[in-house]
From TrEMBL:
<protein>
    <recommendedName>
        <fullName>3-dehydroquinate synthase</fullName>
        <ecNumber>4.2.3.4</ecNumber>
    </recommendedName>
</protein>
<feature type="domain" description="3-dehydroquinate synthase C-terminal">
    <location>
        <begin position="174"/>
        <end position="317"/>
    </location>
</feature>
<dbReference type="InterPro" id="IPR030963">
    <property type="entry name" value="DHQ_synth_fam"/>
</dbReference>
<dbReference type="InterPro" id="IPR030960">
    <property type="entry name" value="DHQS/DOIS_N"/>
</dbReference>
<keyword id="KW-0479">Metal-binding</keyword>
<comment type="function">
    <text>Catalyzes the conversion of 3-deoxy-D-arabino-heptulosonate 7-phosphate (DAHP) to dehydroquinate (DHQ).</text>
</comment>
<keyword id="KW-0456">Lyase</keyword>
<keyword id="KW-0170">Cobalt</keyword>
<dbReference type="InterPro" id="IPR050071">
    <property type="entry name" value="Dehydroquinate_synthase"/>
</dbReference>
<keyword id="KW-0547">Nucleotide-binding</keyword>
<dbReference type="Pfam" id="PF24621">
    <property type="entry name" value="DHQS_C"/>
</dbReference>
<keyword id="KW-0862">Zinc</keyword>
<dbReference type="Pfam" id="PF01761">
    <property type="entry name" value="DHQ_synthase"/>
</dbReference>
<dbReference type="InterPro" id="IPR056179">
    <property type="entry name" value="DHQS_C"/>
</dbReference>
<keyword id="KW-0520">NAD</keyword>
<dbReference type="InterPro" id="IPR016037">
    <property type="entry name" value="DHQ_synth_AroB"/>
</dbReference>
<feature type="domain" description="3-dehydroquinate synthase N-terminal">
    <location>
        <begin position="60"/>
        <end position="172"/>
    </location>
</feature>
Length: 353
């Protein structure tokens, strides 16, 4: 299933008038709000106070966390939708972070061959990345986003009031994707985000809008990720493998998505330097900035071997070879690069210094 029309994005005070008019105009039979227990506690009441509609509303609450982003949870939600009388004219509203928008979008895209859904991201990560661009899906075991479709929501509603409900580590997790947008597409944006020392001020609202514009510009040019959209995977080839490894390894604490991607961006920047694409000066700057935001993670040789093995399952792999996005300079990236395992090991060695 594929709907490559770019979704409109509404911010703050524009969100709820649009939602009211759209629900009224489309004559939806029912609205189903998908949340996890965190957004049920901290965000749901804020949203429901703004949802002025005569359409019957049901709330479907899920367990939080990446470990529940799987097909088993989808089956439960599909069954709940059926039990509650959802039909082709029902609307799904995904109120939550990246797990909820990814899974809820996939559930809506496949229930009765597809019903409308709206994403209302409540984390910084979801606002600048996960809720945008139409990627939906779930993990298969610890392997990230192996099952899914590209299908855009009716709209994305970004209300930054929800950021006040987040702990600092969740803000930092989203900050990683904003920094990524600068690294692969816009050097000036990179420096403006680096300058954001206070991540809860009005400047953050401006930076979020700029991040959304960058992602949507790239996605509009290449909705199905055949070319330039791949640059948005910078840091994700190794980052996803690291995230998966920590997810399935009970001896390691689970890393947030942004924490794993930050490590991936440092490693892939080092690989870019080793391949003669990126200057050492720019690599050192990138590493210094990211390590000023994210704590360093220690890896054993066994960890690195296991993470490297996971690369073969990366969904960007072709003919059994993982494909990397590498930097040629801050603000510019190249796609479809193969990388020798020796370079990966050297990148890990430098990361630990």
């Amino acid at each position: 299933m594929e709907n490559s029309t770019l979704s409109p994005v509404f911010f703050n005070d524009d969100c709820y008038p649009w939602l009211y008019e759209t629900v009224k105009k489309e004559h939806y039979s029912k609205a189903f709000v998908i949340v996890d227990s965190n957004t049920a506690e901290y965000c749901l009441s804020i949203f429901l106070q703004q949802l002025h509609t005569d359409v019957p509303v049901e709330v479907i609450e899920l367990e939080p966390g990446e470990e529940h982003k799987n097909i088993e949870t989808c089956i439960q939600v599909w069954q709940t939708l059926a039990d509650l009388g959802a039909d082709r004219k029902s609307l799904v509203i995904n109120l939550g972070g990246g797990v909820i928008t990814d899974l809820g979008g996939f559930v809506a895209s496949t229930f009765k061959r597809g019903i409308d859904f709206i994403n209302i991201p409540t984390t910084l990560l979801a606002m600048v990345d996960a809720s945008l661009g139409g990627k939906t899906g779930v993990d298969m075991g610890a392997l990230k986003n192996q099952i899914g479709v590209i299908n855009n929501p009716v709209a994305v509603l970004i209300d930054t009031i929800f950021l006040k409900t987040l702990p600092p580590e969740q803000i930092r997790s989203g900050f990683a994707e904003m920094l990524k947008h600068g690294l692969v597409y816009n050097k000036e944006y990179w420096y403006s985000v680096v300058a954001l020392t206070n991540l809860t001020n009005d400047d953050l609202d401006i930076a979020i809008k700029q991040s959304v514009e960058i992602k949507n510009t790239v996605v509009k040019e290449d909705p199905t990720e055949k070319g330039i959209r791949k640059i948005l995977n910078f840091g994700h080839t190794l980052g996803h493998a690291i995230e998966s490894y920590f997810l399935e390894n009970k001896n390691r604490n689970i890393l947030l998505h942004g924490e794993a991607i930050a490590i991936g961006m440092i490693l892939e920047s080092h690989i870019s330097m080793q391949q003669g694409l990126l200057s050492e000066e720019e690599y050192r700057e990138i590493k210094t900035v990211l390590l000023s935001v994210f704590d360093k993670t220690l890896f054993t040789d066994k960890d690195i071997d296991a993470i490297t093995e996971l690369l073969i399952h990366d969904k960007k792999s072709e003919f059994g070879m993982p494909k990397f996005v590498l930097l040629t300079e801050t603000g510019k990236a190249v796609i479809n690069k193969t990388v020798d395992k020796v370079l990966i090991n050297k990148a890990f060695s430098d990361y630990e210094k």
